[in-house]
Amino acid sequence: MAVSPSVRINVSGARGARGATGADNIEISQVLGVPAGSLNLGTFNGDIIPDNSSAKQALQALEDVAVRKRNEFVSIVDFGAVEGGVVDCTSALEAALTASKRIYIPAGKFRFNSPITHIFSPSATGPSDDKSSYDQIEIYGAGADASILYFPSSDGLEFQCSSFQHIVRLRDFSLTTGQAGGGTTALKITNSFAYFGEYNGHHHIDITIRGDDGYAAAYYWSTYIDLFNASNISFGKSCNLYGPVLGATDNTYGLGVRIASDPNPGTGSSGEPGWGTSYDLTGIKLRFLGCAIEIGAGVQGFSLGPGTELTVGYDGIRVIEDVTEVRQINLTGAQISVNGDSIYLASGVPSCVISGGYIGVAPGKNGIVFASNDGAANGGGTIVAGITFVALGPGAGDGVYVGTSFNPIVIDNCCFNGLGTGIELAATSSQVTVGSSNRYANCTNSVIDLGTGNIVAPANLTGNGVGFGESVTQETSKSTGVTLHSPAGRVITHDATLSSGARASFLLTNSKIGHKDVVSVSSSNGNYRVWTAGASDGERAIYIENIDGSSHSDAVTINFVVEKAAQL
């Protein structure tokens, strides 16, 4: 029969590559290092290979590959592991890790009654070009739904590193648990030495972690992935973490990824701080988790990219309270749709960029919360841009809430739809700029600014949009001061008598007013003239005069609008 140049040849018994009794498919053109389609295998029947073809050369190369694979990979079944989910395979995987750096998990369900802990041998912790400190473990399977490591009631895999060049690579298998929580951790990677510098390699995680009863069922790990002092980590686009169906109801049902670092200085020849650095979660899927991602102290260079999904669970991303040296968070094009707060920064994060993507805002919750600036170094700023914020139901909270800040924050080019408030700037906020390109639709309030030194673009402060036209009623007399924090609104005066030609004045306290702003007023009643005076931040005096020939006792509606053009 004629053989196509792209033919694949089964290499039976490539031990480790597919197990002792399996086979591995290898592309001939890849083995020989030549372009696909350039091989002439000739025409032959059965086992007869003609001398005028390149098949003999191909088979010799394949034999070499098979030998190399046998030397590099070992299968856990070669060390006594039995698939089926009944026999304890703990000692088999431990023996495989002792024998080889590269482990293959064939198709099947393998049971582990005890956690698996691999401790890398202590080695030099010098500069990144010190090859003597290099060591790597790779475990891969036949696919997430094919190769399953089942831990009925214990922790899963733990890797204890002692050098920045100790590397863990995991792909194409699943870690499952047979219980609901119980304090278990599926995967833990720690390092006694967190080097802040260049790296020769990186950890890679591309596996599925879930309950053994299925996806989003009842069983779940308390913590799915725990990273401490483990720098330079990437997550594959096939990495999926599934919590229980109850993960959508409360933040106690499973923590997806926890990242933290020891703030102590590095050791060896490095005197730099030992912060954990460089985490790329682009494409990862985290679903039905009580909290998808928790960021602790000393985490720098954290990224979420396009294709990342944090959905159906409760809390999205949380920077915990009272931590320092969290820097350079970059969230680009991610989809976050959870039932709690989508992004909650309980500590300060300088140099933070949140751009593109979609954020769903749940009832009574917020999209992005800058709750505190505690622990943030003075330097860098924050940009929130190009995000669509959409209410997930009635009673949604703020799109963006800023509590305290001293590093600048810029919010622009975002769309806010159906929210309680698009952007809320608390009284303790400062140095926040709200740009003119934001758009607000069906929001109760577009922008609420109670802070000091914030700049809110004119397009969001004037006009007849949603959130304008609020009112306050004067008490006691026409000289009683009123307070209304709104860019536009109405003051309804007291109905005290004002005789012909007489005037009264009162103070309007309004945090939206800057000392350079123009406050325009008009009266709904033609018997009165109104105007403003003063040039102080947060207040204006409003005058009302009876210009009719008779006394009147009217509750006059005075309309006002704050015009910010003079400030820019």
TrEMBL record:
SUPFAM superfamilies attached to this UniProt entry: Pectin lyase-like
InterPro entries noted in UniProt: Pectin_lyas_fold (IPR012334), Pectin_lyase_fold/virulence (IPR011050), RHGA/B-epi-like_pectate_lyase (IPR024535)
Short name of one Pfam family: Pect-lyase_RHGA_epim
Domain of life: Bacteria
Domain Rhamnogalacturonase A/B/Epimerase-like pectate lyase: 73-149
Protein's name according to its UniProt entry: Rhamnogalacturonase A/B/Epimerase-like pectate lyase domain-containing protein
